[in-house]
Amino acid sequence: MKYYARRLTFYVITLWAAISLNFFIPRLMPGNAEDIFRAKMARKGELTPAMEKSIQLLFGSDDQSSLWDQYLRYWNNLLHGDLGTSITKFPAPVSELIGQALPWTIVLVGLATVLSFVIGISLGAWVGWRRGTWVDGIIPASTLLQSVPYFWLALILIAVFSVNLAWFPIIGGYDTFMFPDGPVATWEFFSSAVYHGFLPALTIVLSSVGGWLLGMRNMMVSTLSEDYITTAEAKGLRPFRVLTTYATRNAALPSLAGFSVSLGFVVAGSIVMEQVFTYPGVGKLMINAVQDKDFALMQGVFLVITVTVLAANFLMDLLYGFIDPRARHNG
């Protein structure tokens, strides 16, 4: 029980620190979100006193409140689900913009991350079990794919399968001509989304499966030298049972910790991939927010990513403590 209490305390303090940094850092950066918004509005016409008052109310500068008061107001807004208002998409709330982009990223990047993890762990266990044979030749090929930059691999896939062969679309998350009014929960829309998401998902899988495979292969080689593996083989257990029950299950434990981090960063999306494919996910939303100096949107995206990563790590710590008693007893 002490193990879980320590982990919970750690993550609560980390969450408080992350939210506090998310509040203070934009205010310490050069530039001012209110001035940027006022300049953009001025390009469209003269600012009236009523518009000036609305801008001040929007950014909370109508009163001469202290930084501490603004900090408390920021926490109050967060607890009520208010992440602010986007400058570039005014008057759309930040939470609404993130809510629109989040499902695209979770479905695409989440499924691709899980798929690459399962493929990498399975192949890594097999290669480690058959170490020293021709199967080891898979390692250089997978490592080569992992070393290729994300954007370059994405551009190669686009050039081959979209431009030359015309098998897949180049950009977008669905066929906008078929659904001009936006996503519709129909089978046709689902098919269109899968069709548009195939190449981005393939980019993620090809780029990340090599890391899981190599790590699992090395852990398998280390685990197979343990005494309990020798004992299991001496007892006459079937090789398949030794592979699955004794070797793979123990060798996969370190990979679970890395998987929790990867799963947490699913919400962040694959920024370069989403930019190359113009995919409507959180990664592309974050790039647009940085380019347009939309501080409220940047804060909202960073906060969602931070909370998700912490939650994924916390859940994995609980699971790790459950499946590995050594983590609980060794603190």
TrEMBL record:
Topology within the bilayer: Multi-pass membrane protein
Please name one Pfam family that this protein belongs to.
Answer: BPD_transp_1
Q: Which domain of life is it from?
A: Bacteria
Protein keywords:
Membrane, Transmembrane, Transmembrane helix, Transport
Q: Which PANTHER family match?
A: OLIGOPEPTIDE TRANSPORT SYSTEM PERMEASE PROTEIN
Q: Which residues form the signal peptide?
A: none
Q: By what name is this protein known?
A: ABC transporter permease
Name the residues that span the membrane: 7-25, 101-129, 150-174, 194-214, 256-277, 297-323
| Source species | Oerskovia merdavium
| Residue span(s) of domain ABC transmembrane type-1 | 102-316
The taxonomy runs:
Bacteria, Bacillati, Actinomycetota, Actinomycetes, Micrococcales
Please state which protein family the record places this protein in: Belongs to the binding-protein-dependent transport system permease family.
